[in-house]
Write a structure and sequence with these properties.
It comes from Lyngbya aestuarii BL J. With about 100 residues, this protein is mostly helical. The protein contains four helices and two strands, in the order ααββαα.
Length: about 100
């Protein structure tokens, strides 16, 4: 599993990213802890953004419709029914590169 740079800083004993006055004590995170931290960061980035597809529960009830904003309640519901990964992959993000039309 690829470890994001912000987690490497934590593993190196420097949670703030700066140099520590103490001797660097090694902090080793498990893959589950890394995945949890990464998922929490993705959730924070997704909150307040619109969704680009319909997210439904197992009874086919709509949790979020296209264009709805992602809320804490929607994240909790998606986590409970096991579709949090679908929700996080459906966040509308603007393209960073503008399209060039000729």
């Amino acid at each position: 599993m690829r470890v994001p740079s912000y987690l490497k800083q934590v593993q190196m004993g420097s949670p703030g990213g700066g140099r520590s006055r103490k001797e660097s004590s090694s902090v080793h995170l498990t893959e589950d802890q890394i995945a949890s931290i990464t998922q929490d960061k993705e959730i924070k980035a997704a909150l307040g953004r619109p969704i680009k597809r319909i997210i439904r529960d197992k009874q086919d009830k709509i949790i979020l419709n296209v264009g709805d904003l992602i809320t804490h309640k929607a994240v909790l519901k998606a986590r409970q029914i096991g579709v949090l990964d679908v929700l996080l992959n459906s966040v509308y993000r603007r393209s960073s590169k503008p399209s060039i039309e000729e």
